[in-house]
Amino acid sequence: MPRRVLIVGYVVLLVAPLALAGMQGLPLRSLWDELATGAGLVALAILLVEFLLSGRFRLISRRIGMDVTMRWHRVLARVALVLALIHPFLYQGARNPPYPWDTTRQLTLNWEPEAILPGAVAWMLLPVLVGLALSRSDLGKKYQNWRLGHGLMALTIAGFAIWHALLAGRYSADPVLTGFWLASGAVAGACMLRVYLLAPLARLRRPWRVTRVGPIAERTWELVLAPDGHDGLKFQAGQFAWLQVGQGPFSVNDNPFSIASAPSEGPEIRFVIKELGDFTRSLGRIPIGAPAYLDGPFGHLTPVERDAPGMALIAGGVGIAPMLSILDELRAQGDPRPVTLIYGNRSAAQIVDSDRLAAMERRGHLRLVHVVSEPAEDWTGEVGVIDRPLLRRLFDDEARRSWLFVLCGPPGMLTSVQQDLTALGVPRPRILCESFVYD
Ligand SMILES: Cc1cc2nc3c(=O)[nH]c(=O)nc-3n(C[C@H](O)[C@H](O)[C@H](O)COP(=O)(O)OP(=O)(O)OC[C@H]3O[C@@H](n4cnc5c(N)ncnc54)[C@H](O)[C@@H]3O)c2cc1C
């Protein structure tokens, strides 16, 4: 499904409650009352559609990218919060039970406690939910526990908000809009079930075993898995999967990692992992033969099948992982297109697969440009960071116009390289980018 269709579908879902309310043909109330209701309807729609954005759907992540999806998830959460917070204050109608003669509730707002209380609970919990998400990194909570708690709290808020809309809402009392809210609430619940029940059940049927684990560069590990009784994972070079090692498939402890091996290399899957926190620092303790589970593939960093006369792969640190998969796949397919790899690191000790990359360069498969910011005295490559003068020097006008630029690395580097590339005339649709951090 094209990206544009997904975006249009998303917008349609957000405005659907407004359209369904408008189609009821009820007499209009004051502008403020209609604005108040509109704010409430859109806030609830955003809240419910947020579950789709964070529900690990391949269809969405393949077209839009998980990092972009999560960025929108956060932006829209703020919009929903503002709309929800102002919603009760915009009303100007009389706050009474409906007058018997006012059958369309044009003049009064349903102010009965059973209608208002669920809304008040949702109204008070929503800022807490957003606040906890914004301060997640300061709270020191384990990411996966926070994610489960965040999802359950969001589901609880959605439940209270739907309850409130059905009892207090003038338009939501209509059977069509009631049906829309109940169906959307069910889909939101199903998204959580998918991540925490259905995906683990699917993983249970396709277990993996650790066949190799060891250090390959400074604070960087290689982890190789082989399928245990099945034919492996079908993926495209550059994609990633959520990985669980040494625990049951129902454990909430999974982490996303790019697949560093190529699809055509066979069923074994290799990951290149940099030490960062709890899981990534425990790789040295994983025994050979340990069970592992994968949820994937996800991601849109998939340039191999795309039409472009050449490719620039730009990696920062462990952002090299998907590039290794892409390079190996291009070589396995005998792809004749010119490829330049710009690989930035702090020091030469952090370079992964340095001999293999050098061998690819010698065979003429690759133009390899190492960039190191803290070089040793004998360093012969580029010094500094991947910046505009370097990019200008490496790519002529024709390459800038027509090549595909594939970026992966720390968020700061991604932002600055994207800005440099667009300033140098690279069209935005020719830049593919995946961030390893969702914050
Ligand atoms: C699409 C994608 C691909 C990635 N590919 C690689 C790779 O090939 N090699 C590599 O070294 N790193 C990769 N990462 C980063 C890697 O996922 C984190 O470094 C790792 O999860 C840290 O886990 P931890 O338990 O060691 O640290 P923690 O301290 O638990 O986590 C540190 C941070 O990692 C992120 N993180 C942890 N768990 C998850 C999760 N389940 N979902 C999303 N984010 C999470 C959070 O931002 C968290 O704050 C990738 C990340 C993403 C999003």
Automatic annotation (TrEMBL):
Its cofactor is FAD. It is found in: Membrane. Gene3D superfamilies: Nucleotide-binding domain of ferredoxin-NADP reductase (FNR) module, Translation factors. This is Predicted ferric reductase. It comes from Ruegeria intermedia. PROSITE patterns: FAD_FR. Keywords: 2Fe-2S, FAD, Flavoprotein, Iron, Iron-sulfur, Membrane, Metal-binding, Oxidoreductase, Transmembrane, Transmembrane helix. CDD domains: FNR_like_3. GO terms for cellular component: membrane. Residues 203-304 form the FAD-binding FR-type domain. One of its GO terms (molecular function) is flavin adenine dinucleotide binding. SUPFAM superfamilies: Ferredoxin reductase-like, C-terminal NADP-linked domain (SSF52343), Riboflavin synthase domain-like (SSF63380).
